[in-house]
Amino acid sequence: MTSSLGQPDVIAIAGFLIFIALSLGITYWAARKTRSADHFYTAGRTISGLQNGLALAGDYMSAASFLGIAGLVALSGFDGLIYSIGFLVGWPIVLFLIAEPLRNLGKYTFTDVVAFRLRQRPVRIAAAIGSLAVVAFYLIAQMVGAGNLIRLLFGLSYETSIIIVGCVMLAYVFFGGMIATTWVQIVKAVLLMLGAAMLAGLVLARFNFNPLRLFATAAEMYGAGVLGPGKLVSDPLDALSLGLALMFGTAGLPHILMRFYTVPDARTARLSVNWATAFIGTFYLLTFVLGFGAMVLVGKTAITSVDPGGNMAAPLLADVVGGRVFFGFITAVAFATILAVVAGLTLAGAATLSHDLWINVVRRGHAAPHEELRVARISTVVLGLFSIGLGLAFKGQNVAYMVGLAFAIAASANFPALVLSIFWRRFTTRAAAASMVTGTVASLVLIYFSPTIQIELLGETSAPFPLRNPGLVSMPLSFLVAIVVALASPEPEAERRFEEVAHRAILGET
After folding, report:
1. Which residue from 60, 84, 197, 284 has the fewest beta carbons nearer than 10 Å?
2. What is the spatial distance between Cα 282 and Cα 306, in angstroms, rounded to a whole number?
3. pTM here?
């Protein structure tokens, strides 16, 4: 492979700047409409099912999807697809368990649902801990991917690239809120689907549009092992742990759950999940071709020489099969992908800090709407600066793997409490708080003692916890703690209000 990547290119940069101009134009338009907390968090609940489906897909198809999975498949072969499958199968759980009750019971965040029949302050504090941990790990992945993209495109240092990304994202979340974020995600989802389809088509054209020839060539170059499991996840328990985290983590991601409040009713929420699943499923089929295409046409050595985590496999592939113009387009699409997801994450984190902690814990529910909007914008700045710091600290990590850890925290900290609060009559305040804190702390501690941190980052010879993903231990532990604490400390008032929850979860507000 020959490439001039890392050197500034006028054509590639032009495509990138066009998207930046488009996103800032959307921000200007949205800022004129964002006059209240309701508009800042939920876009005034005016988003249609198709629009929200595209925005959900845009929010979900992150740097992990486009950059990370393509890189994992390119470097590990078949095993990289465990992330594609895991990310996709979480959506039926969202559709059948979460979407409708969430829309009917909440206002701005999923914590509204958990706290609906419980005491507000303990639940919101515990939920904030878990939500911010998820947002932090998810932000790491997006910022690392974005830093590498800008470095490739402009020839800047990684550190300078991270700061540029953080500043651009801050501009349109701060001023545009959910309206700007939604429309940037819609534009990004359309561009990403188009870009991935074009890139996959150009790859398959090299093999007479026969995927089997592509896979056979990969096997000839790197051995038949790339077409079978074991290259990336060799331990069955590790595979099970990762699968659980990816499957159930989707239903605990704050920035995904927040999107269900942007639609007018529960029916539209269900419809948006159907649209999102269709778009996401189609996209993940394409990552298979992109990963093996990069493996064959770019080469593992060339991929890792640019980025050790393999995150630049897709842009490198675009440069090989489509030249600099197509590389500029794919890079702009990848950057749009990251920018939109970082915006959604920042918005979710800002909602947690302002709505859950400031308004409902510090102010005990008594604050003027303009105060909530002001605190949300201050929180946005804080989280933007925090995301820049995370991006600088975790240089070189594979973004799909980092998102897998975020899913594990979401599956452990948020999902058990959310499900039990909706469907279990005997669930209590203490149980909710204990479950969320246990899930968050257990997953973070196990991540720290995992081989990834202890061996790969710290250079130790062994790790106290053998699994790379903690989901197999931390999620059941969170459920167990919730059930034990609830049975040990009954809460008659919470049990009495369960009928209201059950009624409203199905029929909506009456």
Report:
1. 197
2. 28
3. 0.84
